[in-house]
Design brief:
- By secondary structure, the chain is an alpha+beta fold.
- Helix content is 30%, strand content 28%.
- Helix 1 runs parallel beside helix 5.
- The C terminus is likely disordered.
């Protein structure tokens, strides 16, 4: 029987970060990762904002593969809107190396890491959690005072302890490819029902030469046939006609942050809590922001010897204050975008194509906080108002959204 103060399920960047923070405060902490290698299999496009390195205590060397200055956005009819180009807006990272770096950092702080260890069952006892952990086809029992689920979109911890489910689950498919000729400073984004219904497809240059890329798309439809057909349509684009596939990538992306992320002795963080940007599907930055909140409340709870649901709920309030409004607003825009047809998307990109709008997007565009762009863009291009549904309200001095009186 292994006994820990804290058991973190999931060895991704969020799990590694939160485990390392807690262990630094002197608590015996473990990470249980179901796969045999940290960072594998790859399920992420690996495009993040530079500010993630303000949160983590690992350097950029060997993690950052390329710097992105802008984007070429293709409408369903093939028109192109080019934005940015004057400064670095995002970084392309090697997600496997990022994950390994954060877990290795956690190890250095005393975290015990168990690879190839899958949580098959969990139960609440008097004042602790008992887990069944399968490794090499054998079941081992583990006890912990606090269980933290950082175990991804299909979180077993979320299911075992009866937490609510995400509002929506996207299916994704992608690949790493070679033999392409891209401008390494720009990502390519494709919109339209034939290539990514309800979301978008992407081509992300992986190196400074633009000779390799990470490509992919998401769809909301559960049909495997639709997912494969959209991917084949992506491969037919001009940029990928001579591409050779190095390896495939796939997974799921949860959207709609959970209304409850804690209960007695249990916390959820990252993709397990659907703390993901609804506008882009990116989870690294919001996951790390929430992991910082999770670790601080967990340490405080352990110090106070109070792991009850009421105390741990401070974490939910804390992350909601930090980033909850941004995620909620993102879901509003997500609902608006998914209902657009190809003709409407074409019209919106055409309207955005004027010089003033492009300038405003370049100045205020932020992949982590897209709401910063809304009011300056509407001020520069008021004709966009006719596309927005009535759920969006406007005042002279600011932009806000009406969530019906109960949102974060």
């Amino acid at each position: 029987m292994n006994r820990f103060d804290v058991a973190v399920v999931g060895g991704g960047p969020v799990g590694g970060y939160v485990a390392g923070k807690i262990a630094s405060s002197g608590y015996r902490t473990a990470i249980f990762e179901e796969h045999n290698k940290i960072g594998e299999p790859l399920r992420c496009a690996g495009l993040v904002s530079p500010r993630i390195f303000d949160l983590v205590d690992v350097g950029q060397t060997n993690i950052v593969q390329n710097k992105i200055y802008g984007a070429n956005i293709y409408s369903p009819s093939g028109n192109v809107l080019t934005i940015g180009g004057d400064r670095v807006h995002a970084l392309v990272v090697n997600r496997s190396t990022l994950d390994e770096s954060l877990v290795n950092s956690a190890r250095e702080k005393g975290v015990e890491v168990f690879l190839g260890s899958r949580i098959s069952y969990g139960r609440k006892k008097e004042d602790f959690i008992e887990l069944d952990v399968i490794k090499d086809k054998r079941v081992n029992q583990t006890e912990c005072l606090l269980l933290i689920g950082a175990d991804g979109s299909g979180s077993p911890v979320r299911d075992l302890f009866g937490f609510p489910q995400p509002n929506e689950m996207l299916r994704s498919i992608g690949a790493e490819v070679a033999n392409v000729d891209l401008d390494p400073r720009f990502v390519e984004i494709f919109l339209g029902r034939s290539i990514a219904p309800g979301f978008f497809a992407w081509i992300i240059p992986l190196n400074k030469h633009g000779s390799e890329a990470r490509i992919g798309l998401c769809v909301e439809n559960k049909s495997k046939h639709l997912l494969k057909q959209c991917f084949l349509n992506l491969l037919k684009t001009r940029q990928l006609q001579n591409a050779g596939i190095l390896r495939y990538i796939g997974g799921s992306i949860p959207l709609g942050p959970l209304k409850k992320t804690t209960q007695s002795n249990v916390m959820l963080v990252g993709d397990a809590a659907a703390q993901v940007k609804p506008t882009s599907g990116g989870g690294v930055y919001p996951g790390l922001v929430c992991a910082r909140c999770c670790a601080s409340v967990a340490i405080e709870a352990l110090d106070e010897e109070d792991l009850g649901g009421r105390f741990l709920s401070r974490y939910h309030r804390l992350w909601s204050k930090e980033i909850g409004k941004e995620l909620s607003l993102g879901m509003r825009f997500r609902g608006f975008f998914r209902n657009l047809d190809d003709e409407q998307i074409d019209k919106i990109l055409y309207v955005l194509g004027n010089e003033k709008s492009v300038e405003v997007i370049g100045e205020y565009g932020d992949i982590d906080y897209p709401s910063k762009l809304v009011f300056p863009l509407l001020k520069a291009c008021p004709s966009l108002l006719k596309f927005l549904p009535s759920v969006f309200k406007f005042r002279k001095s600011s932009f806000y959204f009406d969530d019906g009186g109960g949102g974060t």
